[in-house]
Specification:
Length: 157
Amino acid sequence: MTNGLNGAAHPLPFTYNDGGRALAGFKGSTRDCGCRAVAIATGRDYREVYSFLNRMSKVEHLPRGWNKSHSRTGVHAITMHKYLKALDFKWTSCVYQDNDRFMCINKDDLPMGRLVLYMHRHFAAVINHVLYDTWNSGSGRYYQLKGYWKLEENWLI
């Protein structure tokens, strides 16, 4: 694994993708990265993911004082974890024990396949070492990769 302080050895190519947000009739900018990442990684309809995450947020159990998740304003990692686990995604943590180093978003550290990356306050989709997002969130060392969910191989879209 690469030390995040040195930057990514082999950064992922970036492709702009809104996950189907505009096609679903949504306008303007928003903080929908969780919904967008799931829609891209699973190939599911943006509106379907948006609605399901909002239904999940109504029954989520968060620490006292936390705001509820919403597909438009941000989904908590707790809610994302439950949703992706139900879709047969497997979690892999990327946090080092000493917390002084972190994994970079690069080809050397990520497996092939369909992934949803979890960074500090951001989610993004990666499919076969290509980053799909509305901005290049994998460039440089801006975001610490906390972990990722990988779609199990036996799952069909």
